[in-house]
């Protein structure tokens, strides 16, 4: 690729440095592929120098003079908060910087000792009068109490629907610009309270500090993205028509939406569902997962503080069965947004289909068996980093987590060894300690299910690698990383696939 250029330089007795790869032949193909992609680009100097269509004057300029001519040019590279054209980016933290790390640890740790009392929020008031209350303990330390939780009864559930239904006309007639501005204020409220939210994500959701920061960023971005999109999409538009005729396309809200969110993204998905429905002019009844209702209660209060009418957003902490019985069967429910298991989504769909009134929009996001395919052109060290991050971070409980890795036979042994060695470096423990990479799974039932799955695969004769357990963490719902070697996706029984289609 550079032969002609090299020969020209050597003939003029110029000093030439040759850059050549040194390493194992196994790594050569992937390295050469990356270099070819970089050097083969049309804008690359090497491509230009061998092209007869590029004039010599475009290549033979004084680089020093070129740089000096650019000194007065304004820097057009946007700062991180300005990388999006229509909205502000959320703030993150570089935890590799010790000052940031120490500052964040001090701020977040100040909330770790908090004990909460949470209940449903109906018309802005917490319904702590219910006799049905439970204690919620931290998954990382099952003896450590986090909250008292008051579960809504049938009267309170129906009251939330009555109130949301009555508020619909007022909220839907509010200008979309006003609704969008409220979403912007919600994003600011979340950002202003991020340290306590990090604490709750760590204590209640068992997130690492990295995952907690990223989830808060996603929640803030949901608010700002939907606000900017609403101003573009939901405004009235004049359509082309005949002379003397004026056609206007206007978007209208549907009614009361039920938003059912999961425990594995208790902040981001909860916020995303709710603000999307609200900015479209719908009133909302939010039903969080029972394992993470403290975060939901905290966020709904922030939303009310930001300007969402108290009757336009109701929080109902109740069992899925009671939500189905008292809300989903009611004809006043105009739509359902759900993130969770395949099995539950099918049950909700059937309940809505059995209603006598019209078709109800059902927006469902469920999990699955996410796969990664790796061939010999890949850089194995990078693959290893990505596999660990996708498979094991958040204790593997994300709907997007990697479940099955397909590897080209020629690189199989090398990649497997790298992944196993890297897995051994992961620290498992209470994520209150920021140095731990992986925390507890959400509850004992989930932990037991994982153990049963591993036992089943062992009895079936599969080779299983288990993280070397250096600590016996019996004070929480901890499950160490495992890697199971299979020959085909068919080696996993259908009932196991269905069971682990979780979100």
UniProtKB/TrEMBL annotation:
What is one cellular component GO term in this UniProt entry?
A: cytoplasmic side of plasma membrane
Q: Which GO terms describe its molecular function?
A: L-glutamate gamma-semialdehyde dehydrogenase activity
Extract the PROSITE patterns matched here. Answer: ALDEHYDE_DEHYDR_CYS
Q: Does the keyword NAD apply?
A: yes
Name of the molecule in the record: L-glutamate gamma-semialdehyde dehydrogenase
The record's Gene Ontology biological-process terms are: L-proline catabolic process to L-glutamate
Pathway named in the protein's UniProt entry: Amino-acid degradation; L-proline degradation into L-glutamate; L-glutamate from L-proline: step 2/2
Which Pfam families is this protein grouped with?
Aldedh, Pro_dh
InterPro entries, alphabetized = Ald_DH/histidinol_DH, Ald_DH_C, Ald_DH_CS_CYS, Ald_DH_N, Aldehyde_DH_dom, FAD-linked_oxidoreductase-like, Proline_DH_dom, Proline_metab_enzyme
Domain Aldehyde dehydrogenase, residue spans: 132-485
Q: In the record, what lineage is assigned to the organism producing the protein?
A: Eukaryota, Metazoa, Spiralia, Gnathifera, Rotifera
Substrates-to-products reaction catalysed:
L-glutamate 5-semialdehyde + NAD(+) + H2O = L-glutamate + NADH + 2 H(+)
- Which SUPFAM superfamilies does UniProt cross-reference here? ALDH-like, FAD-linked oxidoreductase
- Which residue numbers delimit the Proline dehydrogenase domain? 1-47
User: Superkingdom of the source?
Assistant: Eukaryota
Enzyme Commission no? 1.2.1.88
Q: Which keywords does the record carry?
A: NAD, Oxidoreductase
């Amino acid at each position: 690729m550079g032969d002609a250029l090299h020969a020209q330089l050597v003939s003029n007795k110029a000093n030439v440095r040759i850059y050549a790869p040194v390493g194992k032949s196994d790594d050569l193909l992937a390295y050469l592929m990356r270099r070819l992609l970089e050097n083969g680009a049309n804008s690359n100097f090497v491509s230009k120098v061998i092209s007869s269509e590029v004039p010599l004057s475009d290549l033979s300029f004084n680089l020093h003079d070129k740089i000096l001519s650019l000194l007065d040019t304004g820097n057009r590279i946007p700062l991180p908060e300005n990388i999006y054209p229509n909205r502000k980016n959320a703030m993150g933290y570089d935890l590799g910087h010790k000052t940031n790390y120490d500052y964040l640890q001090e701020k977040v740790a100040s909330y770790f000792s908090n004990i909460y009392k949470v209940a449903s929020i109906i018309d802005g008031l917490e319904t702590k009068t219910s006799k049905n209350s439970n204690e919620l303990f931290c998954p990382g330390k099952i003896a450590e109490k986090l909250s008292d939780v008051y579960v809504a009864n049938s009267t309170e559930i129906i009251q939330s629907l009555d109130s949301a239904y009555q508020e619909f006309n007022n909220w839907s007639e509010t200008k979309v610009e006003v609704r969008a501005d409220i979403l912007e204020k919600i994003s600011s409220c979340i950002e202003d309270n991020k340290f306590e939210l990090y604490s709750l994500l760590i204590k209640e959701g068992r997130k690492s500090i990295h995952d907690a920061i990223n989830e808060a960023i996603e929640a803030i971005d949901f608010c700002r993205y939907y606000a900017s999109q609403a101003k573009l999409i939901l405004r009235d538009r004049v359509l082309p028509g005949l002379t003397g005729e004026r056609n206007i396309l206007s978007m209208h809200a549907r009614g009361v939406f039920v938003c059912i969110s999961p425990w594995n993204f208790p902040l981001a998905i909860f916020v995303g569902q709710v603000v999307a429905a609200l900015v479209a002019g719908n009133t909302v009844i939010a039903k969080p997962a029972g394992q993470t209702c403290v975060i939901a209660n905290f966020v709904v209060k922030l939303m009310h503080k930001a300007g969402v009418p108290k009757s336009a957003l109701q929080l109902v902490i109740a069992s899925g069965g009671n939500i189905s019985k008292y809300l989903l069967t009611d004809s006043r429910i105009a739509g359902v947004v759900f993130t969770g298991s395949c099995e539950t989504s099918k049950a909700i769909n059937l309940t809505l289909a059995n209603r006598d009134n019209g078709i109800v929009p059902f927006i469902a996001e469920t999990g699955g068996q996410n796969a990664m395919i790796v061939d010999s052109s890949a850089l194995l060290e990078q693959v290893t980093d990505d596999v660990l991050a996708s498979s094991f971070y958040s204790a593997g409980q994300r709907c997007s987590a990697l479940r099955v890795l397909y590897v080209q036979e020629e690189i199989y042994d090398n990649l497997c060894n790298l992944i196993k060695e890297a897995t051994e470096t992961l620290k498992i423990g209470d994520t209150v300690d920021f140095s731990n990479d992986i925390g507890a799974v959400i509850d004992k039932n989930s932990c037991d299910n994982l153990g049963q799955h591993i036992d089943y695969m062992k009895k079936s004769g599969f080779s299983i690698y288990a993280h070397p357990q250096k600590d016996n963490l019996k004070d929480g719902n901890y499950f160490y990383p495992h890697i199971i070697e299979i020959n085909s996706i068919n080696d996993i029984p259908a009932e196991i696939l269905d069971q682990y289609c979780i979100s």
